[in-house]
Amino acid sequence: MTSGPKSSAARKRILFVDDDLQVLAGLRNVFHRDRQRWDMVFANDPEVALAELYRTVFDAVVCDMRMPGMDGLQLLERVREHSPRTARVMLSGTADREEVDRATAAVDELLGKPCASAILRATLERMTNR
Amino acid sequence: VDRRMLDDEVGLDRETDRMFGKLLLAQWLFAIVLALLISPWITFGAVITSLPLVLIRERLARTKAIVEREVQERIEQQRQLELELRQAQQLESVDRLATGVAHEINTPLQFISDSVEFVRGSVGDLISVVRQQQAALEGVLANRADPLAIAAAVDASASADLPYLADEMPRALDRATDGLDRVSRIVRSMKVFAHSRGEEPSVDLDAAIDSTLAIANPIDSRQEAAA
Questions:
Q1: Does residue A4 sit in helix, strand or coil?
Q2: What angle do CA B1, B6, B7 make, to 5 degrees?
Q3: Average pLDDT of B163-185?
Q4: Residue among B106, B121, B161 whose CB faces A113 most closely
Q5: Which end of chain B lies in a sparser environment, N or C, as judged by fewer CB atoms within 10 Å?
Q6: Is residue A85's pLDDT more than 60?
Q7: For residue A118, what are the CA distances in angstroms to A41, A42, A122?
Q8: Cβ within 8 Å, pair B118-A94
Q9: Is A68 part of the contact surface with chain B (CB cutoff 8 Å)?
Q10: Contacts of residue B166 in chain A, CB cutoff 8 Å?
Q11: What is the pLDDT of residues B121-150, one digit of tens each?
């Protein structure tokens, strides 16, 4: 599900994970204009996301909190273990205090849904250029 | 504490108290009669022996009042605790419901926002392409074809990725509409759900089950919405 055929050394690899296909489609649309500089992979299943992560190195992972099977925190913990340099962004649909508290260790940046694409874009730029 | 048992206890206590009072009165009467009949010495003795009884009675009454107040306070405390516990439980379930509903509403809001944002940007790109094509075309029509203007129009068209926009813009609008449907369905379900918990004389069972499922089982309703 990679978008954008061009490749260069400066291109960043970003993985988006959400169990809701509509959310993924919206993200894919809105970041289409970033296709020249970002290689983007969209996974609607945490297991598929993990397989992608073991296959290649990503500069950033953006994932949903509530997903069936493995939740976003568990996935980001695995990302941290596997590739600590990958930036981890949580895009959560709930402002649950417990979730936020638990999130602090595994998550570099916690953003609430709905998150404006400009904010997510700026966050990803900042985190992939560290 | 069983309220009824306590009331019984207090009732018995009052009975004892009354009997005690009668006994004391009888003793005083007896003493006066004796005094009249026999001698002042015996009267004096009777009064003296009854004095401790009066003191004990006072003491008992005070103790009883303290115990009663204490028990009353304990009962009140327990009631308060039960009330607080019930309120906390209600708040917790409201909190959980609100969190679930927030997730179910914020998810469509995310893709509505992204889809609309994408269409807005794409419309801007399209207008820019049209303007550049128009400028190039005007030159051609006036027999003064401007190669730079034509190249710019071709570039603008390529960077806008017209085939992608043609495929994706209608989809994005459909997605935004679906998202709005999803949000309004959840809000509607919440209303039906809230009403069905009240004292409604007649209930539409089908609607009640649908709305409960929509709230309790968001994944199913989501899959249905995605399908």
A1: coil
A2: 140
A3: 96
A4: B106
A5: C
A6: yes
A7: 19, 19, 6
A8: no
A9: yes
A10: none
A11: 999 999 999 999 999 999 999 988 889 999
Measure CB to CB from residue A22 to each of B102, B104, B226 and give the nearest one: B226
Give chain B's mean pLDDT.
84
pLDDT value at A5 more than 60: no
Strand ranges for chain A from DSSP E: 12-17, 38-43, 60-64, 87-92, 109-112
| Per-residue pLDDT, A1 | 47
Task: Classify residue A68 by its DSSP letter.
Answer: S
- Taking CA atoms, what residue in B is nearest to A27? B114
Gap from B185 CA to chain A (nearest CA, Å): 17
Question: Percentage of residues in chain B with pLDDT exceeding 90?
Answer: 44
Nearest to A116 among B106, B111, B113 (CB): B113
Region B3-19: mean pLDDT is 75
Q: Is A95 on the interface with B (CB under 8 A)?
A: yes
Two structure tokens written together for B44 = 């004096």
Cα–Cα distance for residue pair B18/B21, rounded to 1 Å: 5
What's the pLDDT at A90?
92
Residue A95: list chain B partners with CB under 8 A: 99, 102
Query: Is residue A88 within 8 Å of residue A117, measured between CB atoms?
Result: no
Which residue has tokens 């459909």? B174
A17 touching B, CB under 8 A?
A: no
Inform me whether the C-beta atom of residue A23 falls under 8 Å from chain B C-beta atoms. yes
Q: What is the mean pLDDT of residues B55-60?
A: 87
Asked if residue B222 has pLDDT above 50, the reply is no
State pTM to two decimals.
Answer: 0.68
Separation CA A1–CA A40 (nearest Å): 8
Q: How far apart are CA B106 and CA B29, in angstroms?
A: 87
